[in-house]
Amino acid sequence: MLDCSVVACVEEERLLRYKHAPNVFPVRAIKSCLDLSGLTLSDIDLITYGFDAPRFASGDMARFYDTVNRCYPPDDATLRWQKRLAGLFSPAAMRTTLVSNLVRHFGVQPDQVPELVFCPHHETHAAAAFFLSPCDEALVLTLDGSGTASAPCCGAAPAHRSSSCTGSRSRTRWPGSTPR
Predict the structure, then answer these.
(1) Which of 122, 173, 177 has its CA nearest to residue 147?
(2) Which end of the chain is more exposed for a tag (fewer CB within 10 A), N or C?
């Protein structure tokens, strides 16, 4: 975004033609967006990541998994996966991954990497839907089965595009949204 307008948007999976592009840092997507916008990495003020990493660092997601596990006992592989996510998605680990990849692929120094801000996963889906639409304001509904503890999520996108896309919202914490 530049001055509250989307100037470029592309997902790595679209460039690779590989669904979700798992374990692939989005080098091509970043380069494409920079090229399309006529910007360089040094022109970027802020990088947002659509994952609520602070919830992993605070222990909130571990508590959420504990609640889910009491209602729906998981197998051993799921327990290992949950524990692995807690370390993988901590803000410090994600910042380290971002910095090392931008240094390696874009030749910037670590202190030149823009600030990294984490946004709730489902709210980034809502923001993408809204900011890429022709609407001045909208009611946005996201139905996504993973990412954080709330799915679905509904929010009112503001009339002023520079505002938060989720000023008024409601969400259902799963597994409450799944049948027992």
Answers:
(1) 122
(2) C
Q: Distances from the Cα of 36 to the Cαs of 9, 129, 179, in angstroms? A: 9, 20, 45
Record the tokens describing residue 175, joined without a space.
């597994």
Got the DSSP string for 54-109? HHHHTTHHHHHHHHHHHHSPPPHHHHHHHHHHHHHTSHHHHHHHHHHHHHHHH---
Euclidean distance between CA atoms 109 and 104, whole angstroms: 9
- Give, to the nearest 10 degrees, the angle between helix 27-37 and helix 91-106: 60
Cα atoms in the Cβ-side hemisphere of radius 13 Å centred on 155: 25
pLDDT digits (tens, 9 = 90+) for 42-78: 999 999 888 888 888 888 888 888 998 999 999 999 9
Is the CB of residue 150 less than 8 Å from the CB of residue 173? yes
Length of the chain: 180
Spatial separation of the C-alpha atoms in residues 111 and 123, rounded to whole Å: 29
